[in-house]
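Q: What does the assembly look like in three dimensions?
Context provided by user:
Components: two
Sequences:
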Amino acid sequence: MPVVDLATVPLRSLNADLHKLPQNTNETHWTIRNPGGKHALAVGLDAPVTVEIEGHVGYYCGGMNKEATIVVAGNAGVGVGENMMSGEIRIKGDASQAAGATGRGGLLVIEGDASARCGISMKGIDIVVKGSIGPMSAFMAQEGNLVVLGDAGEALGDSIYEARLFVRGTVRSLGADCVEKPMEAADRTALAGVIARAGLSDDVSPDEFKLYGSARTLYHFHVDNASAY
Amino acid sequence: MTASLKPMPAAPLSDMPATAQTTPRFSATFDPHTISEIQRAAATGIYDIRGGGAKRKLPHFDDLLFLGASISRYPLEGYREKCGTDIVLGARFARKPIHLKIPITIAGMSFGALSGPAKEALGRGATIVGTSTTTGDGGMTPEERGHSQTLVYQYLPSRYGMNPDDLRKADAIEIVIGQGAKPGGGGMLLGQKISPRVARMRNLPEGIDQRSACRHPDWTGPDDLEIKIEELREITDWEKPIYVKVGASRPYYDTALAVKSGADVVVLDGMQGGTAATQEVFIENVGLPILAAIRPAVQALQDLGMHRKVQLIVSGGIRTGADVAKALALGADAVAIGTAALIALGDNDPRLEAEYAKLGTTAGAYDDWHEGRDPAGITTQDPELAARLDPVKAGRRLANYLSVLALETQTIARACGKSHVHNLEPEDLVALTVEAAAMARVPLAGTNWIPGSAGF
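A: Here is the predicted structure of the complete assembly.
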């Protein structure tokens, strides 16, 4: 049960120690004190351990995470969980821009609000935001599920591919080629699964959400789409 | 006298000799290619997309000459005295810098744009001569990692296929801001080449026309880039050299900002640098020729005291050892080749002329790489076409070509009295045109005039 105080231990040393952990490590629970908004905290982890961070983190916390569970008792800066592959990242506070950007797997839960470009270029990650998300979220989103219990800002899902966007509240506006879609049984099952993994089954029902996804009209270059390019 | 001033009676048209008519005159402004482009646009309603780099005539290395040795400086013996070509990249911050035997690397080209055998051939050829290859906008394939001894992993705006395991397997990381063919533009791969495997690697539906992002999704500007570089270094435990690649547009400031952001290496790509697919209007009208970009970039490194500490790799139109030597003399540490490497593999081979004719083109002009019907089997995802390229033989051809480039570079360096190709300097060069003299900041041949420098 290591406890690391970043007021005295260099970030480099902490990340190096976390990278050295084997798959079957006994040191499965780490507590990080005084994170002080440092960037690149707990990035590139590759073992099934839990890292609890007692405070705010800077840019790219948990970037490219595999298998680890990272809990931030505070707010997160730009690009939290960027390109994560698996595991779980939970932010107790708010998240800045580009939360979960390009993520390919795993679960990112933001208990507060997320800023602009949440889930940009997401590629398979599941993102749950208990609050609201900012403009241009899920831009060019390719795969995965973005679940928003609050509202979404302007241009949601602009140029979206096959990701699914579930929003409970209002959507300020939809981006190019993003449309509301009927929720099929498979979509509902996927949504219920993500809600359950986020531990929110008692708080919300899949029936409260609307589904947004790609109209697939920009998938091929065509003269009639000239205004959208 | 007066009789001769009388106008000749008009002859009937049928009697007019053929020489009385002028030859058809094409407009310099509306030349045949331009007219065909207007006709094509009117017929299709969509811009022209093609592969390759700028095809227009540009000031280039051809406009420079070396002075060679003379009474005041003496040359090295061609085959007896050593002339080094090795290079170290990434010693500024990386714990494991890259050592290459020659200062000529293979530029980033994706699996997707190129076939699997073509990527394998690049790896084989580069490995034989001791240099590196680079992934592209589509992730790292096991074949490529397996056949390339030194592999640079590109970190692009799209992040297709990006994952930490491949990042840790790479020998260096290249953060791509832009490329010479399209500074400010994202990647493009048309549906014909989004095969099931390519689609899976990129998390895209099969067969769609892919338009990659042109900006990175999670950082904006040099202050963010510095933090992004810190993150990549932390993920890889500060082992890997980190390159920053820019298309030539504002080379002084881009180089300075890349250095400020913590790059180990700056890669600068001129507008002659190729692309797998981009709008023709973009390729031909945006960016700088590499000749105009090297000196401002070197100046930025010198002003920051980082020349030779942060290495500069330049690309875009490198064809011969003379081009390599000129780029190095202007202050670059290495060059990268893309188009020339594909030609060495077998692209635009005249022996395939009949097949090029079927595609409405001719050997030497084939640039519809985005269509995926390459008769040489290089820029395709069609399994039958791809199988035409023998990766072992093609790799050998590339190795031969790279060896020739290195030998030619040494030949010029020795003639200039240099014991290492990096000792070439601007003072070894003169320019044949005023434009080249101004861009390369070397004197017009036979004068001491450098346009734009003090006194004029």
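Follow-up: The mean pLDDT of chain A is 96.
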